[in-house]
Specification:
This protein has 159 residues and is mainly beta. 11% of the residues lie in helices and 44% in strands.
Length: 159
């Protein structure tokens, strides 16, 4: 087997190390994208229930310590009344994150970093995104139950 002789010139070795470092910086980090699946047959996933209802979910085998999750939520307007509510993210049955959707007909963009360390020993972990209407019209709307909360994941990455 041929041997490779390393140069003894310090500046040349430094240049090689800098080139390798630049190459590593250009490649970036590897991240696993995680798909979420809607639990509704509606064209836009939204819900007008006054109790928490799951809109998006996925099942994964935890192999990293962190899930980075971005959501977009919006309360609609029915009969000139804005709809507001709550959202929560469940890891199996544990509430990992929660927040509100203000009744202002404006988007909310939560960006979450969820700790998966307690779940690393599991073979399956269910991640669910739920919403609940707490304010707004109680009649009308597309399904007659009043205003609704729209929700969609923007990104989900295992880091």
């Amino acid at each position: 087997m041929p041997k490779v002789q390393k140069t003894s010139n310090f500046l040349q070795r430094l240049a090689e190390v800098e080139e390798r470092l630049a190459s590593l910086q250009r490649t970036g980090w590897e991240r696993d994208e995680l798909p979420f699946y809607p639990t509704s047959l509606h064209g836009l996933v939204y819900e007008d229930a006054t109790s928490f209802v799951t809109l998006w979910e996925t099942v994964l085998s935890p192999r990293t310590a962190t899930l980075s999750l971005g959501l977009v939520l919006l309360g609609d307007v029915v009969s000139a009344t804005n709809t507001g509510g709550n959202w929560q993210v469940l890891l199996n049955t544990d509430v990992a994150a929660s927040g509100t959707v203000p009744a202002t007909f404006s988007y909310v963009f939560p960006a979450l970093t969820l700790d998966l360390t307690p779940y690393l020993a599991l073979t399956q972990l269910k991640v669910s995104v739920q919403v609940q209407r707490t304010a707004g019209a109680t009649t009308g709307g597309k399904y007659g139950g009043g205003g609704a909360i729209g929700c969609s994941p923007r990104y989900a990455q295992l880091l």
